[in-house]
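Example record

The entry below shows one chain as it appears in the dataset: sequence first, then structure tokens.
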Amino acid sequence: MIIGITHGDVNGIGYEVMLKTLADTKMLETFIPVIYGSSKAAAYYRKHLDIQGLSFNVVNSIDEINPKRLNIINCVDEELKVEFGVSTIEAGKAAFDALERASLDLKNGAIDAIVTAPINKKNIQSDTFKFPGHTEYFEQMFSTGEPALMMLVNDVMRVAVVSGHIPVKDVPFALTEQLIVDKLVVFNNSLKKDFRIVRPRIAVLGLNPHAGDEGVIGDEEANVIIPAMKKAESAGVLCVGPYPADGFFGAGNFSKFDGVLAMYHDQGLIPFKTVSMDSGVNYTAGLPIIRTSPDHGTAYEIAGQNIASEESFRQAIYMAFDIFQNRIWHAEISANPLKIEQRHERGGRVE
């Protein structure tokens, strides 16, 4: 299996967590890593962080990679300068150049999955990248009609969001009955196909405090969320709620469900990251390709200090591998369903 890794913003902690993870030689026994980025920047970080025993196989294209080495495809201007913790236009362009190159290889089937290091959502903006984040970029490039779903995953919960990177003031207007139905269906299918859960149980959160308190605080629950849940149930989705978000997480009810659907970004991600900031994974569900990332950002404030935890990035690698295997398993069992044998009645007996 070949996993492409985009280097993200070179002035953040991306290279630090990548190199710390890939310095473990056991990782190379599982998959073939290909970093899309800058060999110069990678070498600079390797020396600065004093990472021993890690060598690079620098190539120009995916056709030249070595299956037993850590490969780097140069995608950016070699004059790119690393400036710890500084947002620069050059870093934003380098992040996009790597992302674009890796995405094209992913689209052509040259790599099996992609793991993205964090970008700066401001400096990457240009005429060629006008998205609020990775999720929306991959949705436009790879969507087959279903919406992409931002899902945060750790050992104890899977949280997805209906509305992603939009201002909070726009959330109530973005929540439509059909959008919630679509997200529930995508969530349900992903839990089955990507995580091998046969009959997923999904908890749905309300939008308003106390889930509207029967219309006292808001009516989106009664007018939008509950009707959407009923439609999703008729499509085979087992969903329960809507629950007040604070009590739901505070009481630990998330442990009773296979997935939790939040109405907006912070409603789901604040409790998730409180529980699992160092080991959570951001997964883009609902697409034919596999894309994961660590659940943290560029962390400029600690860039270059050799204190960033690589655990979230490591888990993103593992999850990309697991989902790849799970999809193979799901395709096999779906292609060969158990056949129902015809039964014949003979002499009063059924044979």
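Notes for this example: The mean pLDDT is 92. The CA atoms of residues 2 and 112 lie 5 Å apart.
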